[in-house]
Amino acid sequence: MNILVINSGSSSVKYQVLDMADGTVLSGGRLERIGEPESRLTHHWRDAAGARQEITRRDPVPDHAHAFERIATVMRESGSAGQFALDGIGHRVVHGGERFRAPTRIDREVVEALRAISALAPLHNPPNLTGIEVCLRLFPQVPQVAVFDTAFHQTMPVHAFRYAVPESWYRGHQVRRYGFHGTSHAYVARQAAVHLQRPLESLRLITLHLGNGASAAAIEAGRCVDTSMGFTPLEGLMMGTRCGDIDPAILFHLNRETGIDLEDLDYQLNQESGLKGICGVNDMREAQRLAAAGDERARLAIDMYCYRIRKYIGAYYAVLGRLDALVFTAGIGENSPPIRKQSCAGLDRFGIRIDEARNVQACTEVIEIQAEDAAVRVLVVPTNEELEIAHQTRACLMVRA
Ligand code: ADP
Predict the structure, then answer these.
(1) Is 126 in a helix, a strand, or coil?
(2) What's the 133 CA to ligand 1 centre distance in angstroms?
(3) Are 148 and 103 in contact (CB under 8 A)?
(4) Averaged pLDDT of the chain
(5) Quick check: helix, strand or coil at residue 46?
(6) Tens of pLDDT along 146-176?
(7) How many CA atoms lie within 13 Å of 113's alpha carbon, on the beta-carbon side?
C-alpha cells in the first residue's frame, strides 16, 4: 500500500510517498516560497536500481494549485510517479477543534466542517484546506484522510483542558486547551513502548518535542492527559520565536503604556520572542555557538529554555504520579546532549539521572541515556511525523474498507 503524505503550509508544501509494507520513502520533497518571485522545489526519489536521485527547480509558483501541479509534473518527469500507484493520501491538518478526535476520511461535509473551524488556526488551517481541495481535484479517485495535530490530545480530561475563564468563552468561542504536535507525541510514545518491550497501556510517559516549536505531553496508558500547548501553539515551553507561558496582563500593560495594537502583540509573541527575544537568534545551534563564545544573553536564553522544560517535567511527574520514561525528540531533543543534560539537572530525587557518555551517542534510532541505577528510563526517539500520518491514514482507510 502506497500513501502520499502532504503537509501544506502557508508558503510551502512538503510531501512524501511511503510504501507501507516497510515504511520506505519512495519519493518526496518540498516546494518552498510559494507566491514569491523565486520558488524552490526539491524532489527526491529512488531510481530503478534503488539509488537516491534528487533534482531542484527554481521557477515562480504563484499559489498552491500551481504548486501541486508542479509537484505532479516533476514526479512524472523524474519517472517516480510511474513506479507506484497511490492507495491513499494523508493530509496533515493542524487544528481539528473538538469535533475531530481521530483521523477522518475526507468528503465534502468534512471539508465544510474544516472550513468552519479554520478561525481557530487562521495561519495553519487555510493552507491545509487548500492542499486538501487541490488534491481532491487532482486525485479524485484516491481516498484522502485528514490527520490532526490536535487529535491525540483530545483525551485530556476536562480539568486539564479548560481555562479558568468565563464559561461563555468556552461555550461560545471554543476557548479551551487543544494541544499540538499530536502526531509526534503519539509516534514517539509508541516507539518508546516498542523499545522498552512493554505494552503502551502499562506506561506513564513524559514526551518532550523540542524543535522550532516545542511542547511536552503527559501520557498515561497511551492517552494524553495533559500537554503544554494550549488554545494555540503559543502556550507552554519557551520556543525558537514563541514566548510560551506568560502573564496575559502583560499585554494590557503594554497596550496602555505604548498603545501597541493586537496584531503587533500577536506578531511579537509568535515571531520575536522565545530564544530570539532573549538573545536575538531563534536557532538553538546558533544560540549555543554564541553562548560558547561568551555571549551572556545566549547563555541566559538557554538557561531559561532548560529551566522551563524542567518545570514541566516536575509538573507532569505530579500529574502522572509515577514515571516510567522521559522521551526527548525533534531537532533539539534528538541532537543536543547539553540541552537534555541541563533540562534534567537536579532531578535525581525524582529518579531522573542522565549518563554523560550515553547522552553523547549519536541518535539515528532509539537510544537510552539514563544512568545505570536511575529509576526512570530516559530515551531519545527520532520522530517521524510523516510515517505516523501515513500509518494513521492507512488505519483509517482499513476501518472503512
Ligand atoms: P521544526 O519544528 O521546524 O520541524 P526541528 O525539529 O528541525 O524544527 O528543530 C529545529 C531546531 O533544532 C533548531 O533550533 C536547530 O538549531 C535545532 N538543532 C538541530 N540540530 C541541533 C544540534 N545538533 N544541536 C542543537 N540544536 C540542534
Answers:
(1) helix
(2) 31
(3) yes
(4) 94
(5) strand
(6) 999 999 999 999 999 999 999 999 999 999 9
(7) 15
**Residue 50's pLDDT band (cuts 50, 70, 90):** confident
d(CA 353, CA 368): 11
Question: How, if at all, do strands 214-220 and 223-227 pair?
Answer: antiparallel
User: Which residue reads 488505519 in cell numbers?
Assistant: 395
Contact 329, 310 (CB under 8 A): no
In which residue are the cell numbers 510551502 written? 12
Say which CATH superfamily domain 197-385 falls into: ATPase, nucleotide binding domain (3.30.420.40)
Q: Where are the alpha helices (DSSP H) in 243-346?
A: 249-258, 262-271, 274-279, 284-292, 296-320, 330-335, 337-344
* Residue 221 backbone class (left: φ over 0; alpha: ψ -120 to 50; beta: rest): left
Query: Residue with C-alpha cell 475531530?
Result: 100
Atom of ligand 1 nearest to the CA of 212: 2
The candidate with the shortest Cα–Cα distance to 218, out of 64, 302, 327, is 327
The residues that bridge with 53 in the sheet, in sequence order, are 45
Q: Does the fold of domain 197-385 match that of domain 2-148?
A: yes
Which overall architecture, per CATH, does domain 2-148 show? Answer: 2-Layer Sandwich (3.30)
Q: Tell how strand 144-148 and strand 104-105 pair up.
A: antiparallel
Angle between helices 182-196 and 385-400 (to 10 degrees): 90
Query: Is the per-residue pLDDT at 84 higher than 80?
Result: no
Residue 106: closest CA among 134, 67, 71, 64: 134
Cα gap 298→401, rounded to integer Å? 53
CB of 381 within 8 A of CB of 327?
yes
Active site positions, annotated: 149
What is the per-residue burial (b if ≥16 Cβ within 10 Å, else e) of 86-102? Answer: bebbbbbbbbbbeebee
The atom number, within ligand 1, closest to the CA of 209 reads: 6
Task: Give the pLDDT confidence of 361-389 residue by residue, as tens digits.
Answer: 988 899 999 999 999 999 999 999 999 99
Rounded to the nearest angstrom, the distance between the alpha carbon of 172 and the centre of ligand 1 is 38
Q: Which residue has the cell 506513564?
A: 204
* pTM across the whole model: 0.94
Measured in Å, how far apart are the chain's first and last C-alpha atoms?
13
Q: Where are the domains of the chain?
A: 2-148, 197-385
Report residues whose beta carbon is within 6 angstroms of any ligand 1 atom. 211-213, 240, 283-285, 288, 330-332, 335-336
How far away, in angstroms, is 302 Cα from ligand 1 center?
A: 14
